[in-house]
Predict the 3D structure of the following.
Amino acid sequence: MKLEILFEDNHLLVINKPIGILVQGDKTGDIPLVDLAKAYIKQKHNKPGAVFLGVVHRLDRPTSGAIVFARTSKALERLNLQFKERLTKKTYWAITKETPNPSSDTLVHWTVRNQKQNKSYAYKKETPDSKKAILKYSIKKKLDNYSVLEIELETGRHHQIRAQLSAIGCPIKGDLKYGSARSNPNGSIHLHARSLEVLHPVTKEPVRCVAPLPKDALWDACPSD
C-alpha cells in the first residue's frame, strides 16, 4: 500500500490514514498502519535492523485522516506530553444525516467505555467510571440531505466524537454502532481527521498538516477548506 505522507523529517512522520486500517495491531492480526509506516521508512532510507516508530495517538479503524508518529524516543516523549497537556489542535470533519441544533455549540458529556462492546456511552451527568468529554462543533456546510460538521476536540476519549454526536441525535453517516440507519458499503464512517497541529519536538515550531478527504460523492461535495 502506498502511504500518503503529509509531513516527514528525522523526528516526525504524519500520514493521511486510509479507511479500514488499524493504527496498532490487535487480535485480528491485520497489518496495522504503524507497521506499514515502519516498512516505508526502512525502504526509503535503506535502514538496517528494526525501525523505531512511536504511536502517539490513534484514529478508529473506519475513520481516515491526519495522524502523527514519532521517529525518535525523545520525540515520542515530547509529543505524548503535548497531547496530555492539550497543546495540540485536532480538527475533524463529520457528515451527519440529522442537523444539530444549534448550528454551533460546545458539547460536554461524561463518557463510559464498555470494553466488551468496544463502545463508549455519553451521559449528561457524571457517572461511575466516567471521564469528562468536551468538543466544539459548527456546521461547515449543508448538503442536500446531510450536514458537514467541523469539530474541535478538547479532550481525547475513546470514540468521543462518535458517542457525543450520537448522544445529541446526530450519529455519523455509516456508523451503525452509534445509531446510523445503515452502514457504508466500504465499511467506513464519514469521520475524517481533517487537520492536526503539533509543536515540533525539536524546533518548537508549529507543524500543521491538512489531510485530503477520501474520495466519494459526499466528501467530494464538501468545501476544500
